[in-house]
Design a protein that fits this description.
The chain has 16 helices and 21 strands. Strands 11-10-9-5-2-1-13-12 form an eight-stranded parallel β-sheet, with helices on one face. Helix 5 packs parallel to helix 7, helix 11 runs parallel beside helix 15 and helix 12 packs antiparallel against helix 13. It binds alpha-D-glucopyranose (GLC) and calcium ion. GO terms for molecular function: alpha-amylase activity.
Length: about 550
């Protein structure tokens, strides 16, 4: 044990939306370098950058056309080297987003592959014959429609794409592909980066392509059982990671394992297996079963966090991924609506932003904070459905319209749930361009919220709460201490952290109402209380917590 990332506090930078340095409305690498002094005072020591490689930007950089080049919108290789060395000079680590599952259709490999089966690059991708004018199977893409598309240049064959049709999947059965990806990773590791976030790695293996997935519908069906978490993923991952760690043993491998259950996460983070050092699963956030409104798809209707389910999930993950396995702690990322919108309280936005942070990040695990959450930002708004440029939004809107929804209601629902409205430029200051850019930003999102400068000047801000929280998080009690949920009331999220000599009790009122908790005898005389949020009133044997209020009690001797 004892890797640097055991104490990592990761901040996810969405490069296009962080800071524009050259006035073209797009955030860039030089912008990040300019703002490097922002992180240490906040308590962050690691930056994860969403993809920065050369890309036609069909999927904001996840469609890579050159794994060895920086996208010109974001800067140059020189800007990159400067960013890394300036970051290191400040003790900050850099984690890059590595896209393994697919490339852009503009990537030279795919352009070569289009020459047909005789071309050596043809087998870098996944192809199949149709049947009687039909697609090879009924599997559906995450981005809507089928996973299969035909290219006019290649007769009778379809290529496979789990995501957008301009993002063909790589064929990981091909050892040449596996070798190429190791080469790419080592190239960046040699350039000094400290870690890799492995994009969508759970999809590297696919089942036999010549089978349909059972469904009642006629259209394509997202068939996770055919292309998520198949056993071969683990051998591909192990080979890939071994190929990097041989020369770069300290590189932090953070896997994106969207649909991984806790047991799969345990597999992927098996100690000494050269797989992931930690994974991010989207299964942390079960939602309350929705009243059956089947006419309108649920994907763009806000769903409330199911708190009981969440307590169970956290317990499962905390108790299963015991040390030396690691887990990640996060509330959001670029693929989901912001936590303030999804989980926070409308009546108590400030308090709930702070209390949710305390709740999550003092647990056992590596915090991964989505940029802007330290300001308590909520989802921004786009002015029209067309601005989303997303066929799944169109499908939702059509169904909602047919069910009699007003245009305003449809737009409001999409704004509150879409990933794009969670990717707004970071507001640095008041005034024109919000200190992000001097011109209109690349994404026309209207973002509410108090900018960085104002929050840094206000000791009571969400920003300052994060600062105090991350300071506390660095204590061994909160990195290595045992975790146990104390499920004393439905309105309460409470847990203890325990080491041999110390114990902390974290209490969070997750309701919009004032609540009183009778404290167990062991907690009636804590040595200290930290991070108070909202109103916390102590009585002899109880504590009254105002709506969305929270507190951390600490004591020296340990009781169980
Ligand atoms: C991951 C990314 C997502 C991207 C997809 C395809 O899920 O987080 O943003 O669209 O992979 O690369
Ligand atoms: Ca720029």
């Amino acid at each position: 044990m004892g890797e640097w990332y055991d104490n990592a506090i990761v901040y996810q930078v969405y490069p296009k939306s962080f800071k524009d340095s050259n006035g073209d409305g797009i955030g860039d690498l030089a912008g990040i370098t300019e703002k490097l002094d922002y992180f240490t005072p906040l308590g962050v020591n690691t930056l994860w950058l969403n993809p920065i490689f050369k890309s036609p930007q069909v999927d904001n950089g996840y469609d890579v056309s050159d794994f060895y080049g920086i996208d010109p919108q974001l800067g140059t290789m020189h800007d990159f080297d400067t960013l890394v060395s300036e970051a290191h000079a400040r003790g900050l680590r850099i984690v890059l987003d590595m896209v393994l599952n697919h490339t852009s259709d503009q990537h030279p490999w795919f352009q070569q592959a289009l020459q047909g089966p005789q071309n050596p690059y043809y087998d870098y991708y996944i192809w199949a014959n149709g049947h009687a004018g039909q697609r090879p199977n009924n599997w559906g893409s995450f981005f809507g429609g089928s996973v299969w598309t035909q290219h006019p240049q290649v007769k009778d064959r379809y290529y496979f794409h789990l995501f957008e049709r301009r993002m063909p999947d790589l064929n990981w059965r091909n050892p040449l592909v596996r070798g190429e990806m190791i080469k790419v990773a080592n190239f960046w590791a040699d350039r000094g980066i400290d870690g890799l976030r492995l994009d969508a790695f759970i999809h590297l293996a696919k089942a036999d392509l010549h089978q349909n997935y059972p469904t009642t519908g006629a259209g394509p069906v997202v068939a996770e059982g055919m292309f998520a978490n198949l056993p071969a993923v683990q051998s591909y991952l192990a080979e890939f990671v071994a190929g990097i760690k041989a020369d770069h043993p300290d590189l932090f491998i953070l896997g994106e394992a969207a649909s991984a259950t806790v047991n799969l996460a345990a597999d992927y983070t098996r100690p000494h297996a050269d797989m992931a050092d930690a994974v991010i699963s989207f299964r942390y956030f079960p939602t309350e079963p929705h009243a059956a409104r089947t006419a309108v798809p649920q994907n763009y209707q806000p769903q409330r966090l199911d708190w009981l389910g969440f307590k169970q999930v956290m317990t499962d993950w905390q108790q299963t991924l015991l040390a030396p396995r690691r887990l990640t702690l996060y509330w959001g990322n670029h693929d989901m609506a912001r936590v303030a919108t999804r989980v926070g309280s409308r009546r108590y936005p400030q308090r709930s932003a702070k209390s949710l942070a305390t709740l999550m990040y003092l647990q056992r695990g590596i915090p991964v904070l989505y940029y802007g959450d330290e300001l308590g930002l909520s989802n921004g708004t786009l002015a029209s459905l067309a601005a989303f440029g997303d066929p799944t939004v169109t499908a939702f809107a059509n169904a909602a319209r047919a069910a009699g929804w007003s245009p305003e209601r449809i737009l409001e629902n999409v704004n509150a749930t879409h990933k794009l409205t969670a990717r707004a430029p970071l507001p640095w200051s008041d005034g024109v361009g919000h200190g992000f850019s001097t011109v209109a930003p690349w994404l026309a999102v209207t973002q509410e919220g108090t900018p960085v400068a104002d929050q840094m000047a206000d000791a009571d801000s969400v920003w300052h709460h994060y600062q105090a929280l991350f300071q506390l998080k660095q204590q061994p009690l909160f990195t290595t201490g045992a975790w146990q949920l104390q499920d004393w009331a439905p309105w309460l999220y409470a847990y203890t952290r325990t080491t041999e000599h110390e114990q902390a009790l974290i209490l969070v009122n997750i309701s919009d109402r004032k609540q009183t908790l009778t404290l167990p005898a062991a907690w009636q005389h804590p040595a200290a209380s930290k991070l108070p949020v909202g109103s916390v009133a102590r009585h002899t044997d109880s504590v009254t917590l105002g709506p969305w209020s929270s507190v951390v009690y600490m004591k020296k001797e340990t009781t169980n």
